[in-house]
Specification:
With about 130 residues, this protein is of the alpha+beta class. It has 2 helices and 5 strands.
């Protein structure tokens, strides 16, 4: 009975060390992919692009949006985002998608950049 207990304890310790080693390997592999221009996500949910890496102090400078940068610890970057190719929007060839609101109504498949441009135009019209 005591032999079975020691075997189970040994198996538990082995599995624990194996999991730690696997996690360390994944972390090292991700750290090796760090380079300026790579899109990443931090452990606290910030998305950004790596601007520079300071290996001496373990710091990474992220560009969160144009002109906004944040410096975070290298270990706070937990995920490298894969670039997804954007598909061209599907435009129906009939008039069923038009609304009664007119031409100034926002499109359902409007990109964020188009939305910002449209809102800026509307803001300038109001002033």
């Amino acid at each position: 009975m005591t032999i079975l207990l020691f075997v189970m304890l040994g198996l538990f310790v082995f599995m624990m060390f194996r999991k730690n080693k696997k996690t360390q390997q994944q972390q090292a592999e991700m750290q090796s992919k760090f380079a300026p221009g790579v899109d990443v996500m931090t452990s606290f949910g910030l998305f950004g692009r790596i601007v520079s890496i300071d290996d001496a102090e373990n710091k990474v400078v992220l560009e969160l949006s144009p002109g906004n940068e944040a410096t975070v610890h290298r270990q706070a970057v937990t995920k490298i985002l894969d670039k997804v190719e954007e598909e061209a929007p599907v435009v129906p060839n009939d008039a069923s998608s038009l609304t009664a609101a007119g031409a100034d109504a926002p499109a359902a498949n409007e990109t964020p950049e188009e939305t910002i441009a449209r809102l800026n135009k509307e803001d300038k019209k109001d002033n």
